[in-house]
Amino acid sequence: MALIFYLTETTGSALVLSMATFFGFLPQALLGPFIGVWVDRWSRKAVMIGADLFIALAGVALAIIALNAQPPIWVVLGILFLRSVGAAFHSPAMSAVTPLIVPEDQLVRCAGYSSSMQSISFLVSPALGAVLYARWSISAIVGLDVIGAIIAVLFVAFIAIPKPPQMDREGQESFFSDLKDGWLAIRDDKGLFQMLWIGTLYMLVFMPINALFPLMSMGYFGGTTTHAAIAETAFSAGMLVGGLVLGAWGGFKRRILTLGLSVILMGAGFAASGLLPTWGFVGFAVLCVVMGFSAPFHGVQTAIFQERIAPECLGRVFSLSMSMMSLAMPIGLILAGAFAEVIGVHTWFLISGVLVMLIALLMMSMPAIRALDDRPAQRVAAVVPEAAE
User: Fold this and answer.
1) How far apart are CA 351 and CA 359, in angstroms?
2) C-alpha torsion angle, residues 46, 50, 52, 56 (rounded to 10)
C-alpha cells in the first residue's frame, strides 16, 4: 500500500498506476503454464516457502536502495516484477493444496472464510500504510513486508500437507507432455473451459479498475492518502463481511447464480462510482463496501475448479488459468490507463461497470456453464488412464 501511495503521490498518473499493476502480473502471465508443471511435480509446501523467501529478498533489495534516496519509479516497477515471479509460484501451489486439506463439500465455505481472513489484513494495511507513509521512510516500511514473509514461512513450515498420489509415481512424463495434460484436463470439461474464458474477459475489465482506485480517491475526489486508505479499508470491510456470509451460508444451491449475481453487484458499484460528483467521496466509500462485499463470492469459481479437477494436476490448471487471466490484464491496463487519462478516471469507472454487468449476464446465459450445477462433480485427471488405476 505504501508503494501505491508513493507512485500515486509522485506521479498522479493513471498510466503509471496501470503500469505498476502490469509489471505486477506480467511474470504470472508469461511463466504461469510452465510453473504449473513444476508445482505438480515438486513439493507444494516447498514451493510456497521458496516463493515467500524470494519475495522477501526482493523487499530487502528495495529497502537497501531506499536507504540512500527515494527509489526511482523504474526501480519500484522492477521490484513489483520480481515479487510477481514469487507470487506466480505461490498462488497456484496454495490453490492446489486447499482440496488436499479441505473436504470437497466444504470448499465454498472455505473460500468464504479464507477471504475473510485475508480481509483482516486488507483492513489493517491501508490504514497502517497511510500512517507509516507519513512518518516512516519507504525503506523502513518495506522492512515490515520482509518480516511478514518470514513469519508466513515459519507457519507453513509446521503445516502437514499431504501429497497427491501421482506426485510419487515413477517415470514421470516429459515436461511438455505434463503441460499438455493440464490443458486437456480443463478443455475436456466444456463448462469449466467456457468459465475460464469468461473469467479472462472479466479480468480484462476488472484489474485496470482495481489499479485506479487510489487515483479515484486522490485525483477525482481531490483527497489525500488518508482518503485512499479509507476507500481501501471500506472495500476490505465489505470483503470481511461478504466472506463471513459466504462461509456461514455457502451461497445459493445454484452456484452459478451466486457467482453471476456477485459480478453484477461489483459492476453496479463501479458504474455508480463513475456517476458520483467530485464532492461525493462519502458515497464512493459506501460503494466500496458494497463492491468489497461481492468480492469473496468470486471464490465460488475456484471451488468449482477444485471439485472438478483431480488434485494431481490442479497446479497446472490453476497456473494456466492464472496465466490466461494475467495475459488479459496488460491489454486492459494499457487501454484503461490511456483512456482514463483522456476521458477521466470516473468515466472509465462507469464504462467498466456496464461492461462487467454484461459479462455476468453472458456467463449466466451459457448452457454449459449453467449445467455445472446440474450434474455431479466428476474430477478430470491430467492423465486419465493412471487416474483410473
Assistant:
1) 13
2) 160
What is the pLDDT at residue 179? 66
End-to-end CA distance of the chain: 49
The whole-angstrom separation of Cα 40 and Cα 312 is: 6
Secondary structure letter of residue 219 according to DSSP: I
Closest CA to 29 of 335, 319, 336: 319
Neighbours of 245 (CB within 10 A): 16
Contact 6, 138 (CB under 8 A): yes
The crossing angle, in degrees rounded to 10, of helices 314-343 and 175-187 is 70
Neighbours of 76 (CB within 10 A): 23
Run of H or E residues at 148:
helix 138-157
Closest among 320, 304, 47 to 181, alpha carbons compared: 320
Task: For 265-317, write each residue's pLDDT tens digit.
Answer: 999 999 999 999 999 999 999 999 999 898 888 878 878 887 777 777 777 77
Cβ neighbours of residue 235 under 8 Å, at least 6 residues apart?
122, 213, 288, 289, 291, 292, 295
Give residue 126's pLDDT.
67
Tens digit of each residue's pLDDT (9 = 90 or more) over 61-114? 888 888 877 788 888 888 888 888 888 888 888 888 888 888 877 877 887 787
Show Cβ contacts of residue 206 under 8 Å, excluding neighbours closer than 6 positions.
266, 352, 356
- In angstroms, the Cα distances linking 130 to 210, 221, 229 are 18, 17, 6
Which residue(s) pair with 380 in the sheet? 309
Question: Residue with C-alpha cell 490442479?
Answer: 314
Phi and psi dihedrals of 309, rounded to 5?
-115, 135
Place of cell 467521496: 281
